[in-house]
Write a structure and sequence with these properties.
Structural class: alpha+beta
Order of helices and strands: EEHHHHHHEHHHEHEEH
Protein name: PpiC domain-containing protein
Shape: extended
Strand content: 15-25%
Number of strands: 6
GO molecular function, one term: peptidyl-prolyl cis-trans isomerase activity
Pfam families: Rotamase (PF00639)
Helix content: 55-70%
InterPro entries: PPIase_dom_sf, PPIase_PpiC, Trigger_fact/SurA_dom_sf
Strand order of the largest sheet: 4-3-6-5
Largest sheet: 4 strands, antiparallel
Radius of gyration: 25 Å
Distance between the termini: 32 Å
Number of domains: 2
Length: 246
């Protein structure tokens, strides 16, 4: 039974809270994912050594600035877990990472090649205005060089962070724009061309691409693809497990 600063909390209370917050299903899925990973790791003779657990524990301590053993124990107590619980969590994370690498590291380059277009990038600026008439007025003002895109974004964008950054959205992958239908519009534009207002969810988006960047299999993208393939595999394994249990 968990003890929160001297107050006992029944396990049934935790379960009921998760139900009320619609979080119980997600927690159950994660528990089953953990079982699947452990079983598959055993089948592939994958294990985690104490030295590997210690190395990651030391890294986490440095990140949290836990310089002394007493600092670590105090932090663990505040998290309501024992050192063994922490180490078990680290072991689970390392096991999942090792398993994903063993199963899918050779598939990453193929996935990247088959979906290369999705990894093309654009340095994108965006200006979102809630009113159609104002959006077109701002568009024509930019076209006629009465105001720059950056000035307009600083003045009119509904998002505070974009206003502060004069419309800078970031380096965006083509695949990130697919759901909004903007990928073809953005990637057919010319660099620094102002794309006329596009209506999305009752708002009007003016877009500008500063520069296009070719698809490149960086370490970051490698890890993203690896995680995607592993997540899809976990979902399929869970579905199979649930099907067998029916």
């Amino acid at each position: 039974m968990p003890d929160f600063h001297g107050i006992k909390i029944e396990l049934i209370d935790i379960e009921n809270f998760l139900k009320q917050q619609l979080q119980l299903k997600e927690i159950c899925q994660k528990i089953l994912h953990q079982r699947i990973i452990k079983k598959s790791a055993q089948e592939h003779n994958i294990s985690v050594t104490p030295a590997e657990i210690q190395a990651l524990a030391d890294e986490q301590r440095r990140e949290k600035r836990l310089e002394k053993a007493s600092d670590t124990l105090a932090w663990l107590a505040d998290q309501m877990i024992a050192p063994e619980d922490w180490e078990a969590g680290i072991q689970g994370d390392l096991l999942a990472k090792k398993l994903s690498t063993a199963l899918f590291s050779r598939e990453v380059e193929r996935h990247f090649a088959e979906n290369r277009l999705d990894f093309e990038r654009a340095i994108l600026y965006r200006l979102v205005i809630p009113y159609e008439k104002l959006a077109w007025e701002v568009f024509y003002q930019i076209e006629e060089e009465e105001i720059s895109f950056y000035q307009a974004a600083h003045l009119y964008d509904i998002d505070e962070q974009r206003r502060l950054h004069c419309g800078y959205e970031g380096i965006i992958y083509r695949g990130q724009l697919s759901s909004s239908g903007l990928s073809s519009i953005v990637f057919q534009a010319r660099p620094k061309e102002i794309i006329q207002p596009v209506k999305i969810n009752e708002e009007y988006h003016l877009l500008m691409v500063l520069e296009f960047l070719p698809a490149e299999l960086t370490e970051e993208i490698h890890q993203e693809i690896l995680q995607k393939l592993f997540s899809e595999w976990l979902t399929n394994e869970l579905n199979y497990l649930l099907y067998r249990s029916e």
